Amino acid sequence: MLKIRLSRAWKRNMPFFKVVVTEHTAAAKHGYKEVLGFYNPISKEFKIKDLDKVKTYVSHGVQFSPRVEKLMKLNNVSL
């Protein structure tokens, strides 16, 4: 089952997350299928690059991780 979740990037003490589509049992850092956006917790910036791709994945049954779902609601990203 595929999930849309966060994948940690950058260096220690400089967090940055990519919003990726990956198999729910796979490690989020490796083997993701596609990068859909990013989240920077320092500046509180959350951006989805292509909302149409997210809608396509959701229509095919892909679920959000709890954190990504919360970020979508906080930033008023509607599907």
Strand order of the largest sheet: 4-3-2-1-5
If you compute it from the alpha carbons, what radius of gyration comes out, rounded to the nearest whole angstrom?
A: 12 Å
Q: How far is the first residue's CA from the last residue's CA?
A: 20 Å
Sheet with the most strands, sense and barrel status: 5 strands, mixed
**Unreliable spans:** none
Structural class: alpha+beta
Helix content: 10-25%
| H and E order | EEEEHEH
In total, the number of strands is 5
Mean pLDDT: 90
Estimated share of beta-strand residues: 35-45%
Overall shape: it is: globular
Determine the number of helices (DSSP H or I, runs of at least 4 residues). 2
Descriptive overview:
The chain is an alpha+beta fold. The protein has helices at residues 51-59, 66-74, and strands at 2-9, 16-23, 34-40, 45-48, 63-64. A 5-stranded mixed sheet has the order 4-3-2-1-5. Strand 1 and strand 2 form a beta hairpin. The model has no long low-confidence stretch (mean pLDDT 90).
